[in-house]
Amino acid sequence: MSTAHLSEQEQIRRAKLEDIKALNIDPYPAALYPVNMHSADIKSKFTEELKDSFADVCLAGRLMSVRDMGKASFGVLQDDRGKIQFYLKQDDICPGEDKTMYQQLWKKLIDIGDIIGIKGYVFTTKTGEISVHVREFTLLSKSLRPLPIVKEKEGETFDEVTDPEFRYRQRYADLIVNPGVKDVFLKRTKMVNAIREYLNTQGAVEVDTPVLQNIPGGAAARPFITHHNALDVPMYLRIANELYLKRLIVGGFEWVYEFSRNFRNEGMDRTHNPEFTILEFYVAYKDYEWMMHTTEQLLEKAALAVCGNTEVTIGNKSISFKPPFKKISMYDAILEHTGIDISAMDENGIREVCKQLGIHADMKWGKGKLIDEIFGEKCEHHYVQPTFITDYPVEMSPLTKKHRSKPGLVERFELIVNGKEIANAYSELNDPIEQRERFEEQVQLMERGDDEAMFIDHDFLRALEYGMPPTSGIGFGVDRLCMLFTGQESIQDVLFFPMMRPEKND
Protein backbone atom coordinates (compact mmCIF):
# COMPACT_ATOMS: atom_id res chain seq x y z
CA MET A 1 0.00 0.00 0.00
CA SER A 2 1.32 3.44 -0.93
CA THR A 3 2.44 5.64 1.98
CA ALA A 4 2.95 8.78 -0.09
CA HIS A 5 -0.09 10.45 1.48
CA LEU A 6 1.30 9.99 4.99
CA SER A 7 3.18 12.61 6.96
CA GLU A 8 6.89 12.15 7.61
CA GLN A 9 6.22 11.07 11.20
CA GLU A 10 3.62 8.54 10.09
CA GLN A 11 6.02 7.06 7.56
CA ILE A 12 8.75 6.82 10.23
CA ARG A 13 6.42 4.98 12.57
CA ARG A 14 5.47 2.49 9.88
CA ALA A 15 9.16 1.84 9.25
CA LYS A 16 9.61 1.24 12.97
CA LEU A 17 6.69 -1.20 12.85
CA GLU A 18 8.56 -3.28 10.28
CA ASP A 19 11.74 -3.12 12.37
CA ILE A 20 9.82 -4.38 15.40
CA LYS A 21 8.53 -7.31 13.39
CA ALA A 22 12.09 -8.03 12.21
CA LEU A 23 13.05 -8.47 15.87
CA ASN A 24 10.40 -11.24 16.07
CA ILE A 25 8.33 -9.07 18.39
CA ASP A 26 4.58 -8.98 17.77
CA PRO A 27 3.55 -5.28 17.81
CA TYR A 28 -0.08 -6.25 18.45
CA PRO A 29 0.03 -9.31 20.73
CA ALA A 30 -3.26 -11.08 21.45
CA ALA A 31 -2.26 -12.62 24.78
CA LEU A 32 -3.96 -11.65 28.04
CA TYR A 33 -1.97 -9.01 29.93
CA PRO A 34 -2.36 -9.49 33.71
CA VAL A 35 -3.08 -5.94 34.94
CA ASN A 36 -3.45 -6.01 38.73
CA MET A 37 -3.36 -2.32 39.62
CA HIS A 38 -4.08 1.15 38.25
CA SER A 39 -2.18 4.40 38.58
CA ALA A 40 -4.70 6.09 40.88
CA ASP A 41 -4.76 3.09 43.24
CA ILE A 42 -0.99 3.19 43.60
CA LYS A 43 -0.79 6.96 44.10
CA SER A 44 -3.59 7.02 46.67
CA LYS A 45 -2.66 3.93 48.70
CA PHE A 46 1.12 3.51 48.56
CA THR A 47 3.19 4.20 51.68
CA GLU A 48 6.67 3.08 52.65
CA GLU A 49 5.10 1.02 55.42
CA LEU A 50 2.98 -0.85 52.87
CA LYS A 51 5.63 -1.20 50.15
CA ASP A 52 5.65 -4.99 50.39
CA SER A 53 2.06 -4.93 49.07
CA PHE A 54 3.31 -3.05 46.01
CA ALA A 55 6.33 -5.28 45.26
CA ASP A 56 4.76 -6.92 42.21
CA VAL A 57 2.51 -4.52 40.33
CA CYS A 58 1.42 -4.82 36.71
CA LEU A 59 0.01 -1.85 34.79
CA ALA A 60 -0.87 -1.15 31.18
CA GLY A 61 -1.57 2.08 29.35
CA ARG A 62 -0.34 4.66 26.90
CA LEU A 63 3.19 6.08 26.95
CA MET A 64 2.78 9.87 27.31
CA SER A 65 6.35 11.08 27.80
CA VAL A 66 9.95 9.84 28.10
CA ARG A 67 13.05 11.38 29.64
CA ASP A 68 16.13 9.54 28.32
CA MET A 69 19.13 9.19 30.66
CA GLY A 70 21.35 6.88 28.60
CA LYS A 71 21.06 3.42 30.12
CA ALA A 72 17.96 4.44 32.06
CA SER A 73 14.79 6.39 31.37
CA PHE A 74 11.90 7.97 33.18
CA GLY A 75 8.51 7.75 31.50
CA VAL A 76 4.86 8.54 32.17
CA LEU A 77 2.16 5.91 31.68
CA GLN A 78 -1.49 6.96 31.31
CA ASP A 79 -4.12 4.33 32.10
CA ASP A 80 -7.87 4.32 32.74
CA ARG A 81 -7.50 6.10 36.10
CA GLY A 82 -4.76 8.68 35.46
CA LYS A 83 -1.00 8.93 35.06
CA ILE A 84 2.03 7.56 36.90
CA GLN A 85 5.77 7.92 36.48
CA PHE A 86 7.95 4.86 35.92
CA TYR A 87 11.70 4.23 35.92
CA LEU A 88 13.16 1.83 33.37
CA LYS A 89 16.79 0.68 33.48
CA GLN A 90 18.67 -1.30 30.84
CA ASP A 91 20.15 -3.85 33.24
CA ASP A 92 16.75 -4.55 34.83
CA ILE A 93 14.87 -5.39 31.67
CA CYS A 94 17.88 -6.94 29.91
CA PRO A 95 19.75 -8.80 32.70
CA GLY A 96 21.80 -10.93 30.29
CA GLU A 97 24.20 -10.12 27.47
CA ASP A 98 21.48 -9.40 24.92
CA LYS A 99 20.49 -5.71 25.27
CA THR A 100 18.12 -5.74 22.28
CA MET A 101 15.01 -5.11 24.33
CA TYR A 102 16.42 -1.87 25.68
CA GLN A 103 18.82 -0.56 23.02
CA GLN A 104 16.76 -1.48 19.94
CA LEU A 105 13.15 -1.68 21.05
CA TRP A 106 12.89 0.83 23.89
CA LYS A 107 15.44 3.42 22.75
CA LYS A 108 14.77 3.39 19.00
CA LEU A 109 11.40 1.87 18.18
CA ILE A 110 9.03 2.90 20.98
CA ASP A 111 7.16 6.19 20.52
CA ILE A 112 4.94 8.48 22.55
CA GLY A 113 1.41 7.11 22.18
CA ASP A 114 2.41 3.43 22.11
CA ILE A 115 0.45 1.21 24.48
CA ILE A 116 2.76 -0.69 26.81
CA GLY A 117 2.66 -2.97 29.82
CA ILE A 118 5.03 -2.68 32.77
CA LYS A 119 5.73 -4.96 35.73
CA GLY A 120 7.80 -4.00 38.74
CA TYR A 121 7.66 -2.52 42.22
CA VAL A 122 6.57 0.84 43.58
CA PHE A 123 9.02 3.27 45.18
CA THR A 124 9.33 6.96 46.00
CA THR A 125 11.92 9.04 44.13
CA LYS A 126 14.28 11.50 45.83
CA THR A 127 11.87 14.28 44.85
CA GLY A 128 9.02 12.47 46.58
CA GLU A 129 7.15 11.22 43.49
CA ILE A 130 5.53 7.80 43.70
CA SER A 131 6.81 5.77 40.74
CA VAL A 132 7.10 2.24 39.37
CA HIS A 133 10.54 0.66 38.99
CA VAL A 134 10.14 -1.49 35.87
CA ARG A 135 11.56 -5.01 35.76
CA GLU A 136 9.63 -6.21 32.73
CA PHE A 137 8.37 -4.22 29.77
CA THR A 138 6.00 -5.32 26.95
CA LEU A 139 4.83 -3.56 23.79
CA LEU A 140 1.05 -4.11 23.58
CA SER A 141 0.11 -1.91 20.61
CA LYS A 142 2.23 0.20 18.27
CA SER A 143 0.80 3.69 17.57
CA LEU A 144 1.17 4.67 13.92
CA ARG A 145 -0.12 8.24 14.27
CA PRO A 146 1.57 10.80 16.54
CA LEU A 147 -0.52 12.46 19.24
CA PRO A 148 -0.91 16.24 19.41
CA ILE A 149 1.72 17.62 21.76
CA VAL A 150 0.41 18.79 25.14
CA LYS A 151 2.83 20.01 27.77
CA GLU A 152 2.30 19.48 31.48
CA LYS A 153 4.25 20.74 34.46
CA GLU A 154 3.47 20.44 38.16
CA GLY A 155 -0.11 19.38 37.46
CA GLU A 156 -0.82 22.23 35.01
CA THR A 157 -1.53 21.70 31.33
CA PHE A 158 0.01 23.93 28.65
CA ASP A 159 -0.72 24.09 24.91
CA GLU A 160 -4.02 22.26 25.50
CA VAL A 161 -5.69 21.05 22.30
CA THR A 162 -8.77 23.27 21.95
CA ASP A 163 -9.61 23.12 18.23
CA PRO A 164 -13.25 21.94 18.19
CA GLU A 165 -12.97 20.48 14.68
CA PHE A 166 -10.22 18.16 15.93
CA ARG A 167 -11.73 17.51 19.37
CA TYR A 168 -15.25 16.54 18.22
CA ARG A 169 -14.22 14.65 15.09
CA GLN A 170 -11.38 12.74 16.75
CA ARG A 171 -12.84 12.33 20.24
CA TYR A 172 -10.60 9.29 20.80
CA ALA A 173 -7.52 11.50 20.54
CA ASP A 174 -9.21 14.31 22.50
CA LEU A 175 -9.75 11.91 25.40
CA ILE A 176 -6.08 10.92 25.35
CA VAL A 177 -4.54 14.40 25.34
CA ASN A 178 -7.20 16.31 27.31
CA PRO A 179 -7.78 14.26 30.47
CA GLY A 180 -10.41 16.71 31.77
CA VAL A 181 -12.71 15.69 28.93
CA LYS A 182 -13.06 12.19 30.35
CA ASP A 183 -14.18 13.65 33.67
CA VAL A 184 -17.16 15.31 31.95
CA PHE A 185 -18.38 11.96 30.65
CA LEU A 186 -17.80 10.22 33.97
CA LYS A 187 -19.99 12.90 35.56
CA ARG A 188 -22.61 12.27 32.89
CA THR A 189 -22.68 8.60 33.87
CA LYS A 190 -22.92 9.57 37.54
CA MET A 191 -25.86 11.88 36.74
CA VAL A 192 -27.74 9.19 34.78
CA ASN A 193 -27.11 6.64 37.52
CA ALA A 194 -28.41 9.05 40.18
CA ILE A 195 -31.59 9.68 38.19
CA ARG A 196 -32.09 5.98 37.53
CA GLU A 197 -31.56 5.16 41.23
CA TYR A 198 -34.13 7.79 42.26
CA LEU A 199 -36.74 6.46 39.84
CA ASN A 200 -36.09 2.84 40.80
CA THR A 201 -36.42 3.56 44.50
CA GLN A 202 -39.75 5.28 43.78
CA GLY A 203 -41.04 2.09 42.16
CA ALA A 204 -40.70 3.13 38.51
CA VAL A 205 -40.07 0.43 35.88
CA GLU A 206 -37.46 0.99 33.16
CA VAL A 207 -38.66 -0.09 29.70
CA ASP A 208 -37.62 -0.03 26.04
CA THR A 209 -39.76 1.20 23.15
CA PRO A 210 -39.19 1.16 19.36
CA VAL A 211 -36.70 3.47 17.65
CA LEU A 212 -38.08 2.65 14.18
CA GLN A 213 -41.71 3.77 14.03
CA ASN A 214 -44.52 3.83 11.49
CA ILE A 215 -45.70 7.19 12.84
CA PRO A 216 -43.25 9.82 14.17
CA GLY A 217 -45.45 10.80 17.09
CA GLY A 218 -45.19 12.34 20.53
CA ALA A 219 -43.67 15.70 19.58
CA ALA A 220 -43.81 18.52 17.05
CA ALA A 221 -40.60 17.97 15.08
CA ARG A 222 -39.30 17.07 11.62
CA PRO A 223 -38.38 13.35 11.48
CA PHE A 224 -35.66 11.40 9.71
CA ILE A 225 -37.25 9.12 7.12
CA THR A 226 -35.96 5.71 6.08
CA HIS A 227 -37.39 2.65 4.31
CA HIS A 228 -38.06 -0.90 5.48
CA ASN A 229 -37.18 -3.11 2.53
CA ALA A 230 -38.89 -6.32 3.66
CA LEU A 231 -42.21 -4.58 4.38
CA ASP A 232 -41.73 -2.03 1.58
CA VAL A 233 -42.97 0.81 3.78
CA PRO A 234 -41.50 4.14 4.92
CA MET A 235 -40.26 4.21 8.51
CA TYR A 236 -39.25 7.05 10.82
CA LEU A 237 -36.57 7.34 13.46
CA ARG A 238 -38.42 8.28 16.62
CA ILE A 239 -38.73 11.92 17.56
CA ALA A 240 -40.16 10.96 20.97
CA ASN A 241 -41.18 7.85 22.88
CA GLU A 242 -44.20 9.42 24.57
CA LEU A 243 -47.03 7.60 22.82
CA TYR A 244 -45.49 4.15 23.39
CA LEU A 245 -44.95 4.82 27.08
CA LYS A 246 -48.56 5.93 27.44
CA ARG A 247 -49.64 2.69 25.76
CA LEU A 248 -47.93 0.92 28.68
CA ILE A 249 -49.92 3.02 31.15
CA VAL A 250 -53.06 1.85 29.33
CA GLY A 251 -51.76 -1.72 29.73
CA GLY A 252 -51.61 -1.42 33.52
CA PHE A 253 -48.15 -0.14 34.42
CA GLU A 254 -48.39 2.72 36.90
CA TRP A 255 -44.93 4.28 36.47
CA VAL A 256 -42.64 3.66 33.48
CA TYR A 257 -39.50 5.42 32.29
CA GLU A 258 -37.01 5.21 29.44
CA PHE A 259 -33.71 6.82 28.57
CA SER A 260 -34.50 7.25 24.89
CA ARG A 261 -32.23 8.06 21.96
CA ASN A 262 -34.28 10.38 19.75
CA PHE A 263 -33.69 11.88 16.30
CA ARG A 264 -34.94 15.16 14.86
CA ASN A 265 -34.03 16.30 11.38
CA GLU A 266 -33.44 19.89 12.36
CA GLY A 267 -30.64 22.41 12.86
CA MET A 268 -27.48 22.12 14.92
CA ASP A 269 -26.16 24.68 17.38
CA ARG A 270 -24.64 24.77 20.86
CA THR A 271 -27.78 23.29 22.44
CA HIS A 272 -29.11 21.11 19.59
CA ASN A 273 -27.80 17.88 18.07
CA PRO A 274 -29.94 15.85 15.62
CA GLU A 275 -29.38 12.74 17.74
CA PHE A 276 -29.94 13.28 21.45
CA THR A 277 -31.00 11.58 24.68
CA ILE A 278 -34.30 12.13 26.45
CA LEU A 279 -35.53 10.72 29.74
CA GLU A 280 -39.31 10.35 29.71
CA PHE A 281 -41.49 8.95 32.47
CA TYR A 282 -45.24 8.59 32.92
CA VAL A 283 -47.10 8.07 36.19
CA ALA A 284 -50.74 7.05 36.56
CA TYR A 285 -53.08 8.92 38.92
CA LYS A 286 -50.84 12.01 39.07
CA ASP A 287 -51.01 15.51 37.56
CA TYR A 288 -48.61 18.24 36.49
CA GLU A 289 -48.54 19.86 39.96
CA TRP A 290 -47.27 16.57 41.43
CA MET A 291 -44.78 16.36 38.57
CA MET A 292 -43.31 19.79 39.43
CA HIS A 293 -42.60 18.64 42.98
CA THR A 294 -41.09 15.35 41.73
CA THR A 295 -38.91 17.24 39.22
CA GLU A 296 -37.51 19.42 42.00
CA GLN A 297 -36.65 16.36 44.08
CA LEU A 298 -35.07 14.46 41.19
CA LEU A 299 -32.87 17.35 40.05
CA GLU A 300 -31.79 18.19 43.59
CA LYS A 301 -30.62 14.60 44.07
CA ALA A 302 -28.87 14.55 40.69
CA ALA A 303 -27.03 17.80 41.46
CA LEU A 304 -25.90 16.45 44.83
CA ALA A 305 -24.67 13.22 43.21
CA VAL A 306 -22.66 14.97 40.48
CA CYS A 307 -21.57 18.24 42.11
CA GLY A 308 -21.70 17.46 45.82
CA ASN A 309 -24.12 20.35 46.38
CA THR A 310 -27.11 22.01 44.72
CA GLU A 311 -25.11 24.90 43.22
CA VAL A 312 -23.67 24.57 39.70
CA THR A 313 -21.53 27.06 37.82
CA ILE A 314 -21.64 27.78 34.10
CA GLY A 315 -19.33 30.54 32.95
CA ASN A 316 -19.90 33.37 35.40
CA LYS A 317 -23.38 32.16 36.41
CA SER A 318 -24.23 30.29 39.60
CA ILE A 319 -27.41 28.22 39.33
CA SER A 320 -29.20 26.70 42.32
CA PHE A 321 -31.16 23.45 42.14
CA LYS A 322 -32.41 23.86 45.70
CA PRO A 323 -36.24 23.62 45.74
CA PRO A 324 -38.64 25.29 45.40
CA PHE A 325 -38.21 26.57 41.84
CA LYS A 326 -39.80 29.76 40.54
CA LYS A 327 -43.16 29.40 38.74
CA ILE A 328 -44.81 31.72 36.15
CA SER A 329 -47.48 31.18 33.48
CA MET A 330 -46.68 31.40 29.76
CA TYR A 331 -48.91 34.44 29.19
CA ASP A 332 -47.54 36.25 32.25
CA ALA A 333 -43.97 35.60 31.10
CA ILE A 334 -44.75 37.15 27.69
CA LEU A 335 -46.46 40.10 29.36
CA GLU A 336 -43.50 40.58 31.70
CA HIS A 337 -40.90 40.69 28.93
CA THR A 338 -42.81 42.35 26.07
CA GLY A 339 -45.42 44.46 27.87
CA ILE A 340 -48.11 42.87 25.67
CA ASP A 341 -51.03 40.76 26.92
CA ILE A 342 -51.78 38.19 24.21
CA SER A 343 -54.06 36.01 26.34
CA ALA A 344 -57.27 37.05 24.55
CA MET A 345 -55.85 37.38 21.02
CA ASP A 346 -56.65 35.18 18.03
CA GLU A 347 -54.11 34.03 15.44
CA ASN A 348 -54.28 37.25 13.41
CA GLY A 349 -53.76 39.37 16.52
CA ILE A 350 -50.75 37.34 17.58
CA ARG A 351 -49.35 37.54 14.06
CA GLU A 352 -49.54 41.34 14.34
CA VAL A 353 -47.72 41.18 17.67
CA CYS A 354 -44.94 39.17 16.01
CA LYS A 355 -44.67 41.88 13.36
CA GLN A 356 -44.59 44.56 16.04
CA LEU A 357 -41.80 42.73 17.91
CA GLY A 358 -39.77 42.01 14.77
CA ILE A 359 -40.32 38.25 14.97
CA HIS A 360 -40.61 36.17 11.80
CA ALA A 361 -44.17 34.79 11.50
CA ASP A 362 -44.44 32.23 8.69
CA MET A 363 -47.91 32.05 7.16
CA LYS A 364 -47.99 28.26 7.55
CA TRP A 365 -47.66 28.57 11.32
CA GLY A 366 -50.73 28.38 13.52
CA LYS A 367 -51.44 30.24 16.77
CA GLY A 368 -49.47 27.82 18.95
CA LYS A 369 -46.29 28.06 16.89
CA LEU A 370 -46.51 31.87 16.83
CA ILE A 371 -46.79 32.03 20.61
CA ASP A 372 -43.85 29.64 20.91
CA GLU A 373 -41.76 31.96 18.71
CA ILE A 374 -42.60 34.99 20.85
CA PHE A 375 -41.65 33.19 24.04
CA GLY A 376 -38.46 31.80 22.52
CA GLU A 377 -37.32 35.15 21.13
CA LYS A 378 -38.34 37.49 23.94
CA CYS A 379 -38.62 35.51 27.17
CA GLU A 380 -36.73 32.23 27.40
CA HIS A 381 -33.21 33.63 27.77
CA HIS A 382 -34.20 35.64 30.85
CA TYR A 383 -34.76 32.52 32.97
CA VAL A 384 -31.36 31.51 34.29
CA GLN A 385 -32.44 30.01 37.62
CA PRO A 386 -34.73 26.94 37.36
CA THR A 387 -38.19 28.24 36.45
CA PHE A 388 -41.43 26.41 35.67
CA ILE A 389 -43.27 28.07 32.76
CA THR A 390 -46.87 26.89 33.25
CA ASP A 391 -50.35 26.84 31.73
CA TYR A 392 -49.75 26.88 27.99
CA PRO A 393 -52.35 27.76 25.34
CA VAL A 394 -54.21 24.67 24.11
CA GLU A 395 -52.97 25.28 20.54
CA MET A 396 -49.38 24.62 21.64
CA SER A 397 -50.09 21.29 23.31
CA PRO A 398 -52.03 18.67 21.31
CA LEU A 399 -51.35 15.85 23.82
CA THR A 400 -52.22 17.75 27.00
CA LYS A 401 -55.31 17.82 29.20
CA LYS A 402 -57.26 21.10 29.25
CA HIS A 403 -56.80 23.15 32.40
CA ARG A 404 -59.38 22.32 35.04
CA SER A 405 -60.05 26.00 35.87
CA LYS A 406 -58.53 28.19 33.12
CA PRO A 407 -60.38 28.06 29.77
CA GLY A 408 -58.19 27.99 26.66
CA LEU A 409 -55.16 26.69 28.57
CA VAL A 410 -53.71 23.25 29.29
CA GLU A 411 -52.01 21.74 32.32
CA ARG A 412 -48.46 21.86 31.06
CA PHE A 413 -45.12 23.19 32.22
CA GLU A 414 -41.65 23.53 30.81
CA LEU A 415 -38.63 23.82 33.07
CA ILE A 416 -36.24 26.53 31.86
CA VAL A 417 -32.69 26.68 33.22
CA ASN A 418 -29.90 28.94 31.96
CA GLY A 419 -32.21 30.23 29.24
CA LYS A 420 -33.02 26.82 27.74
CA GLU A 421 -35.78 24.24 28.07
CA ILE A 422 -34.64 21.30 30.20
CA ALA A 423 -37.95 19.48 30.71
CA ASN A 424 -41.50 19.44 29.32
CA ALA A 425 -44.42 17.95 31.27
CA TYR A 426 -48.21 17.56 31.09
CA SER A 427 -51.28 16.34 32.76
CA GLU A 428 -51.82 13.90 29.89
CA LEU A 429 -54.89 14.08 27.68
CA ASN A 430 -56.75 10.78 28.13
CA ASP A 431 -60.05 11.59 26.38
CA PRO A 432 -59.81 9.62 23.08
CA ILE A 433 -62.46 11.73 21.32
CA GLU A 434 -60.79 15.02 22.18
CA GLN A 435 -57.40 13.54 21.32
CA ARG A 436 -58.65 12.65 17.85
CA GLU A 437 -59.90 16.22 17.37
CA ARG A 438 -56.51 17.59 18.43
CA PHE A 439 -54.73 15.27 15.97
CA GLU A 440 -57.08 16.43 13.19
CA GLU A 441 -56.15 20.04 13.97
CA GLN A 442 -52.51 19.03 13.55
CA VAL A 443 -53.33 17.55 10.13
CA GLN A 444 -54.79 20.91 9.10
CA LEU A 445 -51.51 22.58 10.10
CA MET A 446 -49.62 19.95 8.09
CA GLU A 447 -51.76 20.77 5.07
CA ARG A 448 -50.78 24.42 5.50
CA GLY A 449 -47.14 23.33 5.18
CA ASP A 450 -46.05 23.00 8.82
CA ASP A 451 -43.55 20.12 8.59
CA GLU A 452 -43.37 19.85 12.40
CA ALA A 453 -47.09 19.14 12.86
CA MET A 454 -48.07 15.76 14.32
CA PHE A 455 -49.37 12.77 12.39
CA ILE A 456 -52.54 11.00 13.48
CA ASP A 457 -51.55 7.86 15.36
CA HIS A 458 -54.62 5.63 14.98
CA ASP A 459 -53.18 2.83 17.11
CA PHE A 460 -52.54 5.24 19.97
CA LEU A 461 -56.15 6.46 19.69
CA ARG A 462 -57.30 2.83 19.81
CA ALA A 463 -55.25 2.35 22.98
CA LEU A 464 -56.87 5.41 24.58
CA GLU A 465 -60.29 4.00 23.75
CA TYR A 466 -59.56 1.10 26.11
CA GLY A 467 -59.14 3.73 28.82
CA MET A 468 -56.02 5.43 30.18
CA PRO A 469 -56.06 6.52 33.82
CA PRO A 470 -55.33 10.14 34.77
CA THR A 471 -51.61 10.40 34.06
CA SER A 472 -48.76 12.87 34.28
CA GLY A 473 -45.72 12.62 32.02
CA ILE A 474 -42.43 14.44 31.56
CA GLY A 475 -39.45 14.49 29.22
CA PHE A 476 -35.98 15.70 30.28
CA GLY A 477 -33.24 16.70 27.88
CA VAL A 478 -30.43 14.54 29.28
CA ASP A 479 -27.70 16.22 27.22
CA ARG A 480 -28.74 19.72 28.30
CA LEU A 481 -29.01 18.59 31.90
CA CYS A 482 -25.49 17.20 31.66
CA MET A 483 -24.29 20.56 30.29
CA LEU A 484 -25.61 22.22 33.44
CA PHE A 485 -24.11 19.75 35.91
CA THR A 486 -20.68 19.73 34.23
CA GLY A 487 -20.45 23.45 33.45
CA GLN A 488 -20.30 23.00 29.67
CA GLU A 489 -21.70 25.63 27.31
CA SER A 490 -21.96 23.46 24.19
CA ILE A 491 -23.89 20.23 23.72
CA GLN A 492 -20.97 18.90 21.66
CA ASP A 493 -18.91 18.79 24.87
CA VAL A 494 -21.26 16.29 26.55
CA LEU A 495 -21.65 13.98 23.53
CA PHE A 496 -18.83 11.54 22.81
CA PHE A 497 -19.41 11.81 19.05
CA PRO A 498 -21.53 14.85 18.09
CA MET A 499 -22.86 15.21 14.57
CA MET A 500 -20.27 16.67 12.18
CA ARG A 501 -20.26 17.56 8.51
CA PRO A 502 -18.72 14.78 6.38
CA GLU A 503 -14.94 15.07 6.38
CA LYS A 504 -13.38 16.21 3.12
CA ASN A 505 -10.79 13.76 1.82
CA ASP A 506 -8.33 15.47 -0.47
Task: Give the strand tally.
Answer: 20
Uncertain parts:
none
Rg result: 29 Å
Query: How far do the termini sit from each other?
Result: 18 Å
CATH architecture of the largest domain: 2-Layer Sandwich
The strand order across the widest sheet is: 8-12-13-20-19-18-17-16
Largest sheet, strands/sense/barrel = 8 strands, mixed
Query: Kindly state the mean pLDDT as a whole number?
Result: 93
> β content, as a range?
15-25%
What percent of residues adopt helix (DSSP H or I)? Answer: 25-40%
Class per helix and strand makeup: alpha+beta
Q: By CATH's scheme, which homologous superfamily of the largest domain applies?
A: Bira Bifunctional Protein, Domain 2
Key structural traits:
506 residues; alpha+beta; BirA Bifunctional Protein, domain 2; 2 domains; 20 strands; elongated
Task: Report on this structure.
By secondary structure, the protein is an alpha+beta fold. It folds into 2 domains: 140 residues, Nucleic acid-binding proteins (OB fold (Dihydrolipoamide Acetyltransferase, E2P)); 255 residues, Bira Bifunctional Protein, Domain 2 (BirA Bifunctional Protein, domain 2). It contains 15 helices and 20 strands. The strands form 5 sheets. The chain has an 8-stranded mixed sheet, sandwiched between helices. The protein has a 5-stranded mixed beta barrel with strand order 1-2-3-5-4. The protein has a 3-stranded antiparallel sheet with strand order 9-11-10, with no helix packed on it.
